[in-house]
Amino acid sequence: MKTYNQTNFFKHTFCEFQQVDTFEFPENTNYKSKSESEYFYTDEGVYRKSNHWGRVANCRWKLISNDNYKNQNIVIAFAKWIDFYPINSSEKIFFIEVDFENKTAKLRPKQKNATKYLHTFSEGQQKIKQIKHLLNDDKWAKYFDEEIEELRFKIIEEFINSDKTLQNIKRVHK
Model's pTM, two decimal places? Predict the structure, then answer.
């Protein structure tokens, strides 16, 4: 696994930054981007002060925020160097987490000692798009003889825990 630091964390990475409310940015920040984001490096990680999160240049940086966050507000967040993952590799280092109650699906980096089925970043993103369709649309299920919630659970669970295509999985359940 690649090791990230202040010289490479901004090159095709995925990371979840945690919002912090108690950090004051020093005047001599380590770096200020063209889009006015500021960065301060420590031995453990990086603080980022910005009003934009998600797709950042060639990276996917998510903000885990408190309840008061509003898009386009300036927020300070921190991420450890060990929390950065490559998104342009063929390494299977991400799993998909599905919340059936709230009808959401998220890509998560692998966790220590976890036994979840892993995907590459691009595979995971493609599967999430298909899962969101399964969760939010009922039309696809009208040709099945099973209750939709149960069917949805079975199909999505098999889909996120295998390399099978969604089409093949659906075919088996008809």
Answer: 0.79
